[in-house]
Design brief:
Order of helices and strands: HH
Largest sheet: none
Oligomer: single chain
Low-confidence stretches: none
Number of helices: 2
Mean pLDDT: 75
Structural class: mainly alpha
Distance between the termini: 57 Å
Amino acid sequence: MSKKSTAKRHDKKTVPAAVATTVVATSLETELSYDEMLTELEAIVSEAGVRLAEEEATL
């Protein structure tokens, strides 16, 4: 077999494991209470409103 096909198979096996590890680590670190989630959501909505207003002002 060529080196290229061997490298491709190796990459396919390692990527999902790395992604799964990242997802698990991230979910463990970011357990938020209801109030914290609500505050984060309000901040996201506020930022989106500002961004939309800026876009409308430039049009």
